[in-house]
Amino acid sequence: METVLSGIRSTGNLHLGNYFGAVRNFVKMQNTHQCYFFIADFHSLTTHPNPASLHENVKKVLSEYLAAGLDPEKATLYIQSDVPEIPELYLLLNMISYLGELEKTANFKEKVRQNPENVNAGLLTYPVLMAADILIHRAKKVPVGKDQEQHLEMTRNFAKRFNFLYKVEYFPEPEAFNFGEELIKVPGLDGTGKMGKSEGNGIYLIDSSDEIRKKVMKAVTDAGPTTQNQEMPDAIKNLFSILRLVSQAETVKFFEEKYANCEIRYGDLKKQLAEDIIRFTSPIRERILQIYSDSEYLKKVVALGREKARASASKTLKEVREIIGFRGF
Ligand code: TYM
Asked: Which of 197, 271, 308, 315 is the catalytic position?
């Protein structure tokens, strides 16, 4: 069985971008692949969360993963900081990653722009830690959204470089994966780029119906089309992109035709979109609340995941140490 791995930062709740970009695929793959899914809490340290909020966020994301359909009996579901083999592999990979390539990473450049006063080494070497996450289980497929594509390319480079340096064929070259389709980018509703935690434009699985209605009704639109079959501006395209994810095909077609004939009323489109998002998220939200309050269950899930993840990770690390030349006496 092929090994699959993916993760989510514990920086906040899961939004529709995380769900449709990644988690939906995790759920589909857990029956047919050897799956490792984890919560990246080391990665969240780049923004210096306080201890209470760090713990709280991990608990929230874990409950959300489970509520979205991840089955801890089928997949290995674990917390990154429970697996000390990951930071050790990260240290080893740091020795074969170079300042020039790390500085060029799009995500790093973006973070430097957003937060010039907090350009820490953890941010710079973020892709190395990600590579360690993936290579520690020698995973081949990595279900992620479009924004992670470059990190996967870097992981392949580190894997190739390690194999070349030590003249082995040890690490596979992992690929970003979406069932043969293009990777997804779920847009925000503020007329700009992607939906994201740091962008502050997320619709979260945990949002109440009222919050969702408010967010959708505030979405950026324009004055409306004035000529038949006019090309949509980005803000309107974004609304339709989300509609396609949560609504029936007839609903999408109905509004597309209204747009093409210049008869669209954005208020109606937004109302429909909000109700369809709510229909989709509210059963998940109920499960989140229920799972979140079941501490005994969460404890069991975490312990089971830790054990399975460490079994695989320690095997890899032992072999890597042997390859590198840490052979003991
Ligand atoms: P994170 O927590 O930002 O996002 C988690 C997953 O959700 C996807 N995603 C999106 N997909 C489509 N549209 C969007 N608007 C959108 N926003 C987020 C991301 O592509 C990702 O798949 N560095 C990673 C976490 C990580 C990881 C790993 C992932 C750490 N180690 C190893 C895979 C393998 C991150 O910050 O994702």
From this structure: 197
Give the tens place of pLDDT for each residue, 53-72.
Answer: 999 999 999 999 999 999 99
Q: In this structure, what token pair is assigned to residue 320? A: 């890597």
Q: Is residue 191 part of a domain?
A: no
Q: Is 28 a catalytic residue?
A: no
Q: Measured from the CB, is residue 9 less than 6 Å from ligand 1? A: yes
Spatial contact of 319 and 136, defined as CB atoms under 8 Å apart: no
Tokens of 87: 């930071």
Residue 253 lies in a domain: yes
- Per the CB < 8 A criterion, the answer to whether 94 and 135 are in contact is no
Tens of pLDDT, residue by residue over 152-190, are 999 999 999 999 999 999 999 999 999 999 999 999 998
Task: Name the residue with tokens 């095909």.
Answer: 249
Number of domains the chain is built from: 2
Whether 257 and 308 map to the same domain: the answer is no
